Amino acid sequence: MLIERPDDMSRDGRLAVCRDSEGDFHIRVIPPAERSDDYAPSVEFVAHCSRSPRTVAALEALMEAMRLDNEERPLPGQFTDTE
After folding, report:
1. Which run of H or of E encompasses 53?
2. Residues 67-71: what's their mean pLDDT?
3. 26-40 pLDDT, tens digit each
4. Neighbours of 36 (CB within 10 A)
5. Secondary structure letter of residue 19 according to DSSP
6. Would you give the distance in Å from CA 7 to the centre of its chain?
7. 42: Cβ–Cβ under 8 A, 6 or more apart, which residues?
8. What are the percentages of helix, strand and coil residues in the chain, rounded to 5?
């Protein structure tokens, strides 16, 4: 599952949260076009590991919040793929 939500301050900056087939979370910040030369940081949290249980729970809640925002308040540049 991949969900992207546009940021509030630019036309095309986005936050992307992906949950892969193993249940791990990948978070990526996609900068706006005027900052396209900037490095887009990415981090991963392993869902089956007990190192970050509250963080994993928060990421699950974040994905659901982003999905609902995309559904209820659509913005240009958003993306939701639930497969």
Report:
1. helix 53-72
2. 92
3. 999 888 877 777 677
4. 10
5. E
6. 11
7. 26, 27, 28, 29
8. 30, 30, 45
